[in-house]
Amino acid sequence: MYKAKIFVNYKPSVLDPKATVIQQTLTRLGQTNVDSVMVGKYFELVLQGNEAAVNEQVAKLCSEMLANVNMETYRYTLEEVEA
Amino acid sequence: MKAAVLNFPGSNCAEDLLWAVGPIAGAHAEIVPATATDLTGYDLVLVPGGFSYGDYLRSGAIAKFAPVMPALRAFAEAGGYVLGICNGFQILTEAGLLPGALQWNRDLTFICEPEPLVVENATTAFTRRYTAGQVITLPIAHGEGNYYADDATLTALEAHHQVVLRYQHNPNGSCRDIAGITNEAGNVMGMMPHPERAVEALLGGTDGLGMFESLMEVCDGAYA
Fold first, then answer.
1. Can you say whether the dihedral through the CA atoms of B22, B222, B208, B69 is positive or negative?
2. In this complex, which of A14, A15, A65 lies closest to B61 when CB atoms are compared?
3. B contacts of A15 (beta carbons < 8 Å)
4. Which string of DSSP letters, residue by residue, matches B137-157?
């Protein structure tokens, strides 16, 4: 079995108003060295199957469901876990 | 004209749309659940506003996988008219029937107010009862109506006259003030404003009626 750790983020070209508000608040609190803030989503999926098959499956799930590739990018890692 | 109004778990504008397209505009209209798998026999499919499947993951992201979606895709590919309003627009972009995506409003607030819109393209099946450049006022009611597409997509949309409605005073940060677009073929339209909430003077205005009358005219030759 494999655990997929999936990170989904807006593309750099998308202005994320939530991240902007967080950064503005940090600045107001005196955290003036925070240069940028990115807000994303994190998913963990545990899947049965061999590594190649799981890798292909996770890529498909990301591009078709977990991320909207019009405005988001995704990346993931796979690690083998005990059944 | 025979119209289907889709109804997903969490849709909350299906009855309003049914009233607008049916008794008000004069179509034969019925609610069709998201579990339906066949849309043959309809001229128009309306995808209503609301919060389909709680808008979990992203607005429209779960609705994209509803049982009715393969039938909707086949209906659109065959040239049937599809109009998605608010959450319906979000569903159509998620499903890839329209380009781009809707993200959080620029100011992170849910905006509910009448909004002046410029009719950019009055030659579509959805807007032929208006004139190009006409300003109409329709209610908007959304938290995620900020239209985003990359520059190449926006340029293509404008080159093919697919931008149908623009905000006069961009309320939500949408790229190029876009409030409504069609696909390149012109038979699928998505828009954030609610024409079904502006079809009777009692509701505060009738500027939305032209959209349903346009579709009646195209499908039935009514009002000619």
1. positive
2. A65
3. 106, 173
4. EEEEEESS-EEE--HHHHHHH
Domain count, chain B: 1
CATH number of the domain that residue B208 is part of = 3.40.50.880
Residue B223 in this model has a pLDDT that exceeds 60: no
The sign of the CA dihedral B156, B152, B76, B199 is: negative
Q: Which of B103, B33, B124, B114 is nearest to A15 (CA)?
A: B103
Q: What CATH number does the domain located at A2-80 have?
A: 3.30.1280.10
Nearest CB partner across the interface for B61, out of A10, A16, A68: A68
Are B180 and B189 spatial neighbours (Cβ–Cβ below 8 Å)? yes
Least CB–CB distance from A17: residue in B93, B94, B104:
B104
Q: Quick check: is B86 catalytic?
A: yes
Is B142 part of the annotated catalytic residue set?
A: no
Q: CA B140, CA B13: separation in Å to the nearest integer?
A: 13
Per-residue pLDDT tens for B74-97? 999 999 999 999 999 999 999 999
Let me know if B115 is a catalytic residue: no
Contacts of A70 in chain B (CB under 8 A): 93, 99-101, 148-150
Q: B59-81 b/e with 16+ CB inside 10 Å = b?
A: bbbbbbebebbebbeebbeeebb
Residue B132: give the domain boundaries.
2-220
pLDDT tens-digit map of B175-221: 999 999 999 999 999 999 999 999 999 988 999 999 999 999 999 87
| DSSP assignment of A13-49 | TS--HHHHHHHHHHHHTT-TT------EEEEEEEE-S
Q: Check B13, B86, B115, B120 and give the catalytic one.
A: B86
Interface probe for B, chosen from A23, A68, A73 (most Cβ of B below 10 Å), is A68
pTM: 0.94
pLDDT tens-place string over residues A2-21: 999 999 999 998 989 899 99
Query: Cβ–Cβ of A17/B94 closer than 8 Å?
Result: no
